[in-house]
Design brief:
The structure is a homodimer. By secondary structure, the first copy, chain A, is mostly helical. Chain A is built from twelve helices and no strands. Chain B binds a DNA duplex through loops.
DNA sequence: GGCTTCGTACGTACGGTGTACGTCCCCCTC
DNA sequence: GAGGGGGACGTACACCGTACGTACGAAGCC
């Protein structure tokens, strides 16, 4: 009959994940509910559970999908420090592309390959740069920590101190409350060029890593 | 009458905040509900709203209380690099003292003085070390990013890659899936001494900051 | 072709959430 | 004692995740 002539595209885990991502980016992570996703797909709520065991697993799928979209391939002859920079910037790019999903992606610990591929690439770069196993992991974890903090700030999960002292009243309050340095730096604290801050800290880290002793320096 | 002879301690914003912190630490942040807090205090749910305008404001209070408990005073003659280290470690101490509240504290942007005091102390240290305003803020933000990422990992909000390859099967999977470096480093990746990792990255950052040009070096 | 089987979509229902609203009662002031 | 104000409380609403039972359409078998 006619309902068969307009078959909706089959309900699928992939379509559900896509709808969830769209919903998060459009209306925020806390607006995501199974009902909202079902409505978006024009489908009953419980039909989702035929393809996804739980909301938590669905969010795992969101993280996996987003993480899988990063481009991690390095230019062949690139210096290892530039490879590190490139991998960090690749991470930043996806975070900016899916800003409101960033916290979701970062808080899910996934064992799936899409989560391990960036780890593999980073460790490869560091070991080829001449860092022994133990040191490579230390460096890796330090960089990850910086990345996590930077990106969570940039997407607004964590405060940036940015729009605070826009008005002079807050500034007066600051100096009156015994915060002279904050008052003095208010114009600088009021702005936050995320790209510049990211590069500043990244350069700081890369230079520090470069100064570390290596077992077998190459290139 | 007799109900007056056993007067419950007056319901108070402070007591509500304390109950919330206790609940978060005992049963996790997602177990916090107005009903659970009220039950903990032996009180009706809606009575809470006489002292707290909303759950969000209550969580602000939690963040404020915890942040206010940090000890930021520096030893007088201390070198500025040791002051930086000390302030970072102070932050880590509260994070470890309230592990399950850490995400709540970090994701709330508060304008209250208790949130600004650590900022003021950090900026004072950096400016006294001879960093001009702009640079001081850049350095401050880089350190904050590292702190955020480190502590969120340590309290378990963000994955640590730690207990993954406990069993040899996962390791075999890793090498089979084309992750040779992960496989090779599995024993190192399997452990994560958070204190050591924290100090490693902190040292990396402090040395890098020390190498930065300063307008007026002192001490 | 007829029958069975199975996967998927769906409606209903339960226990949870934050909180708006109205009521009641105790205590303080006059 | 009378009046008033503030805090404690119960109820109610809209929403959440999801367990459970049902109904229907396609596929396999005789």
């Amino acid at each position: 009959m006619s309902p068969m002539d307009v078959p909706r595209p089959a309900l699928t885990r992939d379509r559900i994940v896509s709808a969830a991502i769209g919903l998060i980016e459009r209306r925020g992570a806390e607006a995501v509910s199974m009902r909202a996703i079902a409505a978006e797909l024009g489908v009953g709520v419980m039909s989702l559970y035929n393809h996804v065991p739980s909301k938590s697993a669905l969010l795992d799928g969101v993280a996996e999908r987003i993480l899988g979209g990063v481009e991690f391939e390095a230019a062949p002859g690139e210096h290892w420090t530039d490879q590190v920079r490139g991998q960090c910037r690749a991470f930043r790019q996806i975070a900016l592309h899916y800003p409101r999903s960033t916290l979701v992606v970062m808080t899910r610990q996934l064992r799936a390959p899409s989560g391990l591929r960036p780890v593999e690439r980073a460790l490869a770069t560091l070991r080829e740069a001449g860092f022994a196993g133990e040191t490579a992991v230390h460096v890796f974890r330090a960089v990850i920590a910086y990345l996590t903090g930077s990106l969570l700030r940039e997407v607004g999960v964590t405060p940036a101190l940015a729009p605070a002292p826009r008005d002079p009243a807050a500034l007066e309050d600051a100096v009156a409350a015994g915060f002279p340095h904050i008052a003095a730096l208010a114009p600088v604290l009021g702005r936050c060029d995320h790209a510049a801050e990211f590069e500043f800290g990244l350069e700081l880290l890369v230079r520090a890593i470069e100064a570390l002793p290596r077992d077998a320096a190459q290139v």
